[in-house]
């Protein structure tokens, strides 16, 4: 990686501090020409005896405030919310400035000059957006958002402990200060919802949510293949996984937030700070009621709860009528059985999320998903009477911490499910694949079959990359759920005469509901969580297929830290750099399995083989990302599966299959290309060894 590309990495460091402050452990210095805002501490740090590499940044007229559009309209030091339309416009304006640059060095100079003129989160968002999309930067990887904004993931109390420890120790000490965080997280177990804090506040799932919305933004002129459908599917899968975690703890499945006039039972106190000034995110008391948005500090039109109810009514009318009305008054048919053009779920999701550039009629169908986030995020101070900051529901990197996120998205998903249940059931022809048979299938962990283990693990992040602790290194050790790696084993027979390419689809769901009863197909249908999807070639006769859980199509590898990227001495685009060859989007590998129970909890694995000749998508060569394709697609290419996302559980089942009624998911296993198998997941409540 050349110097300019590597120096782009350091623009992500210390986003709240002046760009002239040394970075990279004091070894990197951006020297801005005519920099009148350079703080005195810069000279002190530069004189500390550490060899410094200085990068001169000349004056540029193209980054004057008048050339940045609305980018400077979001106040520095305040929250930035992609759910707010005026903030999205500010992001687009800044991204447009960055996209006009020619190469890494030009982007470096422009971004270094813009730094300090715009909101910190907006700056990092725009820089990330452009690096992911500029073709000449395809070997540049983004550092972990956890290290860029540690205050969004680590409570202020822990960061203050680190600062106090730094103040007490010798300033010449080179050993980093290490602070711990977990397991109790933001609350005690006095309230049932707090028992899930370890899951909701996990650094990996919150980083995933931030990165997914970076890859699939709205109102940014990005129209990626099946973008709306993937919004539906990825969020549906997150709710399914949350429900599995709830059942593991003996809690009922999440209830949708559908009555927006009733109090929200559970409050949330994030204990995080918006920036390094110590200003706290907004908190929501128990039994807070959503109210009309009447604030004038975000450049957003006043929005009533009634507006949300009207948009919901119009969307449900479209679902039940089978069409939407575009801006010209013409009907746009909603159906997933199409041979060309967009599926109905794609059209519906573009309008519900909503992307005003892709919605068939945004003035009519509104901005339901985004403004739902906004009204909840400001429910504690809807008219700015108390001058309180936005709550965590307003930021994609913090929203999943709040219990109400899952209630809101359960409503969103139920709206999509209403549409899905309007589609015809799959037929036996849709589901069957003649000539192949799954003889046996299961999982193996450490030579033990069908028993998987979960427990606790830890990960170190360098908080001092995002926050300045007087120039001292500070590490935070975060506790998180994890599992021991395992392998899928399938014994498959191919009765044909030639090689047969198939797609292997793997799903996981709890066997029992909250009452301890086995579930019907329809009760269990939206609990099935995709675990993996991959292609294999079956030779004639018997085939033994082995697949590692580490290769899951939904997950990414561990978050790449600043140190990971600094120490990577090989080109990330090269074949030997597999560990670095990902774009950061994907469900965290350590959260692949639900927690389970100490005594073991019964789950079902569902395997289905489909014809790869029908599944495959012809697409051009694209950016190599070895992670998360089921949730994140492929950069600059079509989604790599022609079937509806969630197949075969995205629709109601056929009334009969092979002349017998379909009552449970196990009835699909009558087909030779399907197999269902019971396993147990045990929670060990101890530190795991993943080697």
UniProtKB/TrEMBL annotation:
<dbReference type="InterPro" id="IPR005203">
    <property type="entry name" value="Hemocyanin_C"/>
</dbReference>
<dbReference type="GO" id="GO:0016491">
    <property type="term" value="F:oxidoreductase activity"/>
</dbReference>
<dbReference type="InterPro" id="IPR014756">
    <property type="entry name" value="Ig_E-set"/>
</dbReference>
<dbReference type="Pfam" id="PF03722">
    <property type="entry name" value="Hemocyanin_N"/>
</dbReference>
<dbReference type="GO" id="GO:0005576">
    <property type="term" value="C:extracellular region"/>
</dbReference>
<feature type="domain" description="Tyrosinase copper-binding">
    <location>
        <begin position="402"/>
        <end position="413"/>
    </location>
</feature>
<keyword id="KW-0186">Copper</keyword>
<keyword id="KW-0479">Metal-binding</keyword>
<dbReference type="InterPro" id="IPR037020">
    <property type="entry name" value="Hemocyanin_C_sf"/>
</dbReference>
<keyword id="KW-1015">Disulfide bond</keyword>
<dbReference type="Pfam" id="PF03723">
    <property type="entry name" value="Hemocyanin_C"/>
</dbReference>
<dbReference type="InterPro" id="IPR013788">
    <property type="entry name" value="Hemocyanin/hexamerin"/>
</dbReference>
<dbReference type="InterPro" id="IPR002227">
    <property type="entry name" value="Tyrosinase_Cu-bd"/>
</dbReference>
<dbReference type="InterPro" id="IPR008922">
    <property type="entry name" value="Di-copper_centre_dom_sf"/>
</dbReference>
<dbReference type="Pfam" id="PF00372">
    <property type="entry name" value="Hemocyanin_M"/>
</dbReference>
<protein>
    <submittedName>
        <fullName>Prophenoloxidase-2</fullName>
    </submittedName>
</protein>
<keyword id="KW-0964">Secreted</keyword>
<dbReference type="InterPro" id="IPR000896">
    <property type="entry name" value="Hemocyanin/hexamerin_mid_dom"/>
</dbReference>
<dbReference type="InterPro" id="IPR005204">
    <property type="entry name" value="Hemocyanin_N"/>
</dbReference>
<dbReference type="InterPro" id="IPR036697">
    <property type="entry name" value="Hemocyanin_N_sf"/>
</dbReference>
<dbReference type="GO" id="GO:0046872">
    <property type="term" value="F:metal ion binding"/>
</dbReference>
